[in-house]
Specification:
Chain lengths: 263, 513
């Protein structure tokens, strides 16, 4: 069998050769080992820039996607809408004294400058805030010590006790839906009034804690509807703050006996 | 007409032959070729003998790619990094050149080590090839030196801190420490002079030494012949070995080219393809981040081949460090070079030399384990873990507020830099995923406050309330099968309730907020 180079064969051959060269040239440029061009870091208000900074500096405490961390979830549209940008910037830059929120700006080593932090806040709002939340009806922050603690105690009994029992027998397990004690003085001594206010006002959607809009659960398990007013929240904070300064709640005779038993 | 056409061709042929004859007369090149390329080698020198050739092929690639790289690379502290980025991004296929140079360096070292192990296992270092072995040992050191100085050329954080460790080792030499460090670094500290010094080592001194040593090595191979495959029951006896070898090779041998070299060529060709594939797929090494003394999170590490050394240095007991660092390497090298003088005769077959086989197995295992440890470097805390390593939801869900505060404390006090929970976090300290099954409440409190083992005491860094919250959290880490939270923030914990400070007196600063 002989093979004749007809004109058609030559044309085909040429076309294929050109195609192979093009593919080859493009392919060589796309070899997996070719280093990516060195980019400057993405701006912090872009999704990638925000996500990178959050993963490096925030995820350890605030949770991998902004929820389910030990600290307050930041993926909370109502919270993000309520905290003014200046306040957020000050928190990110200087931290919150006396709490476990460290500062990431200022003069510290490896600090992020204010402009970048502002960009980050913008990036966070783009990612997690929502336009559905307009101006908040209740201020996110207010000076401490303005509430009526007696009324706070009454509110607590009506609306909080269903999940946050004051004392629970030693060895008992946390009932489903229960949040554990918030009247525990050790807890109270670790958190600020602002933390209490924020928790009551915005709740924690990731752990099932309702916001001030309710609904709440009474001690007997019945559902209590109704929104907490600004005064209600101040009263509740005032009640809890008063517990913090008081004596140990748990040194009652029953827990003492339980203690002896557990020992 | 045919004759007329042939004439110029014949003339050219004759002139070429005359030229060659002249060249041979003046240089003796044919004699040299006969003695080297066409010399007779044992018939059974087949696949076991390819590793030395492959090492040399990779060295040739190193020389060729290195020369091209040296024309672009700027050996100055200010420009080295930029020039590498330039080669990677601007020079057409510059990245490929760097990848080939880097991977070929690794391949050369690996082939060399395999060659070393093969020669050792086959007893090929015995009479009369002692000097072949000794020159090989020095070639081995030179090659490792080239690999080490090569990674310094990247002048990134790994290079910088690696040099720092080298300088610290040199500093330990009694009496001459300072001078030795100055010799190494070109001054008291790592500077531009250091890079110039290592550049000179990498492109002039060590390659020159390697070429000279390869010359010695090959000459000695040609003079004493390639060893035959070892056979059990045919021991080496210096009195009769040479005569026997010559007779066997003359009677039964084959010319090195093309008979024996065929295996080398096939193997080298295959290795070359593998090298190109690996370089195209994985790309060049680094350069990594620039050195910055302000970044305390830097975890510098050497290239793969030196990870075993990195691990060994990290794991040496502190008391023995100076002695082992200064005495160990020279003694080890001396022993390696002395091998043919320690056992010069006798059996060559691995089956009759169990101790040698065992040594190779033990050393290989040792290097493999140390390399693995070097990769994982569990002794290094992960300095960023406290802000960047989140807890799995399973370790956060269903915790009380106090326990969550404890989890926060766990991050803030940077416990996670050394301790993992659910495999996330540092490996320096014990994994705490199931710590509640091992330690009681009181033991946890004591461990945190007083430290112990390798752990620092946190008694002064954490208030008693913070410690209690932390322990409340840790006591929920029981493996996850039980819903272990003692609710109400663990009312029944005597250690906590018996805390000595009265509530009012212990005024935590956080209340100020």
């Amino acid at each position: 069998m002989t093979f004749v180079f007809t004109r058609a064969v030559r044309m085909h051959g040429a076309c294929w050769a050109i195609a192979m060269c093009v593919v080859g040239a493009l392919g060589c440029d796309r070899l997996p080992g070719k280093p990516k061009p060195r980019e400057t870091a993405a701006a912090l208000d872009t999704p990638a820039g925000f996500a990178g900074f959050y993963a490096e500096k925030c995820a350890g405490c605030h949770g991998v996607d902004g929820t389910h961390g030990p600290a307050r979830p930041m993926r909370d549209a109502a919270y993000l809408a309520a905290v003014p940008a200046e306040a957020m910037l000050s928190i990110l830059r200087d931290g919150i004294a006396g709490t476990r929120m460290p500062g990431f700006g200022g003069n510290r080593v490896g600090a992020t400058d204010d402009a970048a932090l502002a960009q980050f806040i913008k990036g966070m709002n783009n990612a997690w805030a929502s336009s559905a939340h307009g101006a908040p009806t209740i201020k996110w922050s207010q000076p401490a010590g303005t509430g009526d603690s007696a009324h706070g105690r009454q509110l607590f009994d009506e609306r909080c006790l269903g999940c946050h029992a004051r004392t629970i027998a030693a060895g008992a397990t946390l009932a489903p839906g229960s949040g554990g004690s918030v009247t525990d003085v050790f807890y109270l001594r670790l958190v600020s009034d602002q933390h209490l206010r924020t928790s009551i006002l915005f709740g924690r959607a990731d752990t099932g804690m309702p916001s001030a809009a309710g609904p709440f659960r009474a001690a007997d398990g019945t559902v209590v509807a109704g929104t907490l007013s600004e005064t209600d929240i101040a009263d509740l904070v005032s009640y809890l703050a008063e517990l913090r300064g008081g004596k140990l709640l748990n040194s009652s005779s029953t827990t003492q006996e339980a203690k002896g038993g557990a020992r | 007409m045919t004759q007329e056409k042939m004439k110029p061709a014949l003339m050219v042929k004759r002139a070429a032959l005359d030229g060659l004859r002249w060249l041979d007369d003046r240089t003796g090149i044919l004699w040299m070729l006969r003695k080297s390329v066409f010399h007779r080698v044992p018939r059974n020198a087949k696949w076991w003998y390819v590793f030395g050739s492959a090492t040399m092929m990779f060295f040739t690639i190193q020389i060729a790619s290195g020369i091209v790289l040296a024309t672009i690379y700027a050996p100055s502290a200010a420009q080295a990094y930029e020039s590498l980025v330039y080669i990677d991004e601007q020079v057409p296929f510059g990245w490929m050149l760097r990848a080939l140079h880097g991977w070929s360096s690794n391949a050369m070292c690996i082939m060399m080590l395999i060659h070393l192990a093969q020669v050792f296992l086959h007893g090929a270092y015995k009479f009369p090839r002692e000097l072949t072995w000794v020159s090989g040992v020095f070639l081995c050191l030179t090659t490792l030196g080239l690999a080490f100085t090569g990674q310094i050329m990247r002048w990134d954080a790994d290079a910088y801190w690696g040099l720092g460790i080298g300088a610290a080792i040199a500093d330990r030499a009694p009496g001459i420490g300072n001078q030795l460090r100055a010799l190494l670094l070109g001054g008291p500290v790592i500077s531009g002079a250091t890079l110039t010094r290592f550049f000179t080592l990498h492109v002039f001194i060590l390659p020159g030494a390697a070429i000279a040593l390869i010359g010695c090595h090959l000459y000695s191979v040609l003079r004493n012949g390639i060893s035959e495959m070892p056979k059990a029951g045919e021991p080496v006896d210096p009195a009769t070995y040479r005569e026997g070898y010559e007779a066997r090779v003359q009677k039964d041998g084959v010319p090195f080219y093309p008979d024996a070299a065929r295996h080398d060529m096939v193997f080298c060709g295959a290795m070359l393809l593998v090298l190109i594939g690996v370089a195209a797929w994985f790309g060049p090494f680094g350069p990594g981040a620039l050195p910055d003394p302000r970044i305390i999170e830097a975890s510098p590490r050497p290239d793969g081949l030196f990870l075993w050394l990195f691990a060994a240095l990290a794991l040496l007991p502190p008391a023995s460090e100076t002695f082992l660092l200064l005495v160990g390497p020279p003694v080890a090298i001396a022993i390696l070079a002395a091998v043919p003088f320690l056992s010069n005769r006798g059996e060559r077959a691995p089956s009759r030399r169990p101790i040698s086989v065992l040594l190779v197995v033990l050393l290989t295992t040792g290097f493999a384990v140390l390399t693995l440890l070097g990769v994982r470097s569990p002794w290094s805390p992960q300095m960023k873990a406290w802000t960047s390593t989140p807890s799995d939801i399973a370790f956060i869900a269903d915790r009380t507020p106090l326990e969550l505060q404890g989890a926060l404390e766990f991050q803030f006090a940077q416990c996670r830099n050394c301790h993992s929970i659910g495999d996330a976090g540092g490996k320096r300290g014990p994994d705490l995923t199931t710590v509640a099954t091992r330690l009681s409440w009181d033991q946890l409190v004591r461990q945190i406050q007083q430290g112990g083992g390798n752990m620092p005491a946190y008694g002064k860094a954490l208030s008693s309330v913070e410690t209690q919250a932390l322990v409340a959290y840790l006591s929920t880490l029981d493996g996850g099968d039980l819903r272990a939270t003692l609710t109400g923030a663990l009312e029944a914990q005597p250690a906590r309730d018996a805390a000595p400070e009265p509530v009012a007196a212990e005024h935590s600063p956080r209340q100020v907020q």
